[in-house]
Amino acid sequence: MESEKATNETLVSEEDVEEEVGVDEIGVSKSTSLDQKEILRVLEVVERDSVAIADSFTSLFASLRLALAEVTSTSVDHMQCFSDAAGRLQECALDAATKGNHYINSCLRLNEEIKGMDSLATQLKILRKNVDTLDSAVNRLLRLP
């Protein structure tokens, strides 16, 4: 990491930042508004700030990468859970449909058996009427003195 910083940093030499220095009539050199030391100091501050900003961005992107990995992992877990729940729901729905079909078939069989009971009920009513008639006849015969 340090070697990357060293290669990415731009080194500033004194020759690059030398300002034009003028000479007055007496032969005394004069500097422009900022002297070389001030310029070098400002450049060092800017360079330090740039490195700090680059480190901050590196840290930010690492945090974002970690958060994205966690979210993706959580999403995969949720999709697996959803898939399991959907599978169980499908199994339960098939089981309920099978039981419902058995119930319907049982009701249809019972309905057919009850239809046969209608004729049996009619026969029982006729038989009951005949038994009542026979009972009345027996009672009349027994009352004869």
TrEMBL record:
Residues 1-23 are annotated as: Disordered. It comes from the Eukaryota. Residues 12-23 have a biased composition (Acidic residues). Signal peptide: none annotated. InterPro entries: BORCS6_C (IPR046465). Residues 41-135 form the BLOC-1-related complex subunit 6 C-terminal helix domain. This is BLOC-1-related complex subunit 6 C-terminal helix domain-containing protein.
